[in-house]
Amino acid sequence: MVNPVKESLTCRIPLYIIALTAMSPVFAGNNALSSWQVMAERAQTMLEETQVDIDNKLLQTYQGYAGVWANVGGNTAIKKICKTDQCDAGLFRSINELSADAKYVRKAGLAFVPFTPKHLEYLRAAGIERQRVTLKKGQYLWPVMGLRITSRVGNRWGKVHGGIDVAAARGSIVIGATEGTVMIVGDQGAYGHCVFVENHDGTVAWYAHLSDSFVKVGDKIARGQIVGTSGNTGRSTGPHLHFEMRTQQGIILDPEHFFFLPYEEHLKQSQDFENEMATKNKMTAKTSNKL
Ligand SMILES: [Zn+2]
Q1: Could you tell me whether strands 148-151 and 131-136 are parallel, antiparallel, or unpaired per DSSP bridges?
Q2: pTM for this model (two decimals)
Q3: Which residues have C-beta within 8 Å of that of residue 252, sequence separation ≥ 6?
Q4: Residues 6 or more apart in contact with residue 7 via CB below 8 angstroms
Q5: Who contacts 143 (Cβ-Cβ below 8 Å, separation ≥6)?
Q6: Is 97:219 a contact under the CB 8 Å cutoff?
Q7: Around Cβ 264, how many Cβ atoms within 10 Å?
Q8: CB 3.0-4.6 Å disulfide test: which of 60, 136, 214, 227 passes with 55?
Q9: Least confident piece of the model among 73-87, 109-123, 173-187, 200-214
């Protein structure tokens, strides 16, 4: 006898769903965890509390070291870059992939200047530090302190806008929203200069229209670590960061579902912190001028 319920279901359910259902006994083994158990355990790790330090204009990180990114001209003596005791010359060479006996930076470009513990102590005493926030492992930081969100995920001009746009002055610091491994760095047509990161949770993040990038393919990045600076490269109507998130299969996700704070709250907190840092920086400059 034909089961009428089953019959009608088969008519409505597309073939691929039936195929997936047929494959699902993968989790049915006696000793195997069910997919629900796997998901529940994974969700639990995402709820673990973590502390994150956020890079700013004065204090940045690369490969776990604290320092600052600088534009170095061609044939600059390393002695000149590390002339005071604020920079560790040996570390400078290894981080910037120069030979151990190199005396010059031959090629002009970006270099990471690692600070010595002594200089870090000096900065700390002057109140120059990175903003520390406590959040859960699965929560993301906003990648840029922009002025406003100009576009969200959804339909725009008859096309799907796959990310969020945050208007930000050219050169604004863009930080890693969460930990991950850098997959692609470079020009991506309409998206301009991009950094693509495979996040620790398996999602993929695109940081687009950048003016500069401070990471290379294969780098492990920390949450809050500077990834680049925002800009206006590619097809863009003004300086902004386009931040897009996808699954490995390319399905578009809404980044706003992943963020630690709603945008308005993030903006307020980060602006307060930036103002505080600017005041401290002015004070430090004044003190050092007096000396
Ligand atoms: Zn966009």
Answers
A1: unpaired
A2: 0.83
A3: 153, 160, 162, 163, 244, 245, 246
A4: none
A5: 166, 174, 175, 176, 177, 205, 207, 227, 241, 243
A6: no
A7: 10
A8: 60
A9: 73-87
Higher pLDDT, 160 or 5: 160
Residue 7 has pLDDT above 50, yes or no: no
Mean pLDDT across the chain: 88
Domains located in the chain, CATH noted: 60-127 (no CATH), 140-269 (2.70.70.10)
What is the pLDDT, as a whole number, of residue 6? 47
* Spacing, Cα 245 to ligand 1 middle (Å): 12
- In contact, 105 and 72? CB cutoff 8 Å: yes
CB 143 within 8 A of CB 174: yes
Distance 33 CA to ligand 1 centre (A): 40
Distance 252 CA to ligand 1 centre (A): 13
Which has the closest alpha carbon to 95: 136, 63, 55, 130? Answer: 63
State in Å: Cα 152 to ligand 1 middle.
Answer: 8
- Asked if residue 51 lies in contact with residue 133, where contact means CB atoms within 8 angstroms, the answer is yes
**pLDDT for the residue numbered 32:** 73
79-112 as b/e: b if 16+ CB within 10 A: eebbeeebbbeebbbebbebeeeeeebeeeeebb
- Give the single-character DSSP code of 216: -
